[in-house]
């Protein structure tokens, strides 16, 4: 079956639009500042289709705190506060990591979770 002029024109328009969309996405990706990409990643984590594992959540928590506050600045919670202790340990485990490095690692982890769990 031969292509009609409309089919060729429509196909070309779709291809142009797809190329434009991909190009625009890549430009936005490379022109967004680290803080903008970090904030976008944090927003994506809030909108995941399903809840990540506790291990993933602790990793995200530790990276987020290191990225936003820096090295842990509070004393460890008491032995009976298991959840608080786990969160503190996740943050304290990032001690010495720069805030920018923590942001990059957070973005990578968030992107990995978006890829595996999807966005709502």
Automatic annotation (TrEMBL):
Signal peptide: none annotated. One of its GO terms (molecular function) is fatty-acyl-CoA binding. The keyword Transcription regulation does not apply. InterPro entries: Acyl-CoA-binding_prot_CS, Acyl-CoA-binding_protein, Acyl-CoA-binding_sf, FERM/acyl-CoA-bd_prot_sf. Keywords: Lipid-binding. Residues 34-119 form the ACB domain. It comes from the Eukaryota. The keyword Heme does not apply. One of its GO terms (biological process) is fatty acid metabolic process. It holds the Pfam family ACBP. Belongs to the ACBP family. This is ACB domain-containing protein. It comes from Rhynchophorus ferrugineus.
């Amino acid at each position: 079956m031969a292509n009609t002029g409309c089919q060729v024109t429509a196909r070309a328009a779709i291809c142009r639009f797809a190329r434009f969309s991909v190009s625009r996405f890549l430009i936005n990706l490379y022109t967004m500042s680290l803080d903008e990409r970090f904030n976008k990643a944090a927003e994506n984590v809030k909108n995941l289709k399903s809840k990540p594992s506790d291990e993933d959540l602790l990793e995200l928590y530790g990276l987020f705190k290191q990225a936003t506050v820096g090295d842990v600045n509070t004393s460890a919670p008491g032995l009976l506060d298991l959840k608080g202790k786990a969160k503190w340990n996740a943050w304290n485990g990032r001690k010495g990591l720069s805030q920018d490095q923590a942001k990059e690692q957070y973005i990578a982890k968030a992107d990995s979770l978006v890829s595996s769990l999807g966005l709502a």
